[in-house]
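Q: Hi! First time doing this. I have a protein sequence and I read that you can turn it into a structure. Is that right? Here it is:
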Amino acid sequence: LTGCFGGVFLKDGRIVVTNGCGQGKPVKEYFDALRGYLQERHSLVIDETVANYGCVVHDMPAVDNFLTGKENVLLVGEAGGFNRCAEGITSALITGQAAGESILKSVQTGEPASEIYLVTAKQEMERCRKAYGFLEKNLGVNPFTRGSNSRPGS
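A: Yes, that's right. Below is the predicted 3D structure, encoded as structure tokens:
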């Protein structure tokens, strides 16, 4: 129905409907299918569309491509490839804290912050890998890198 994921939540008094799908997939078709489902099955009424946005979600953790930085430049959260299947705030908080602690330790020891951070970020890298591995194991495919060719409703 959604191609990969869908979500509905309330923000600032408005209902926000989101969806995502793999590269090259028809995101608008999936969104229309999700909206139709919500209207038909859950009586969703849309009086007006305030905005339409699109973005590209990277597949860095799904393909084990983390970039933690070098020397005194540290990359945290999605900038460094840390997210758990399109959920990035948890990884951003964890790696942000790890980066801050790495900088403090670097100041105290003289060791490059990037080397300390690489070690402290490894646990979050593993959590991200496991999240994508879970999808691969349970869906038989990783929708963030090698999604199926199915269309909405098929």
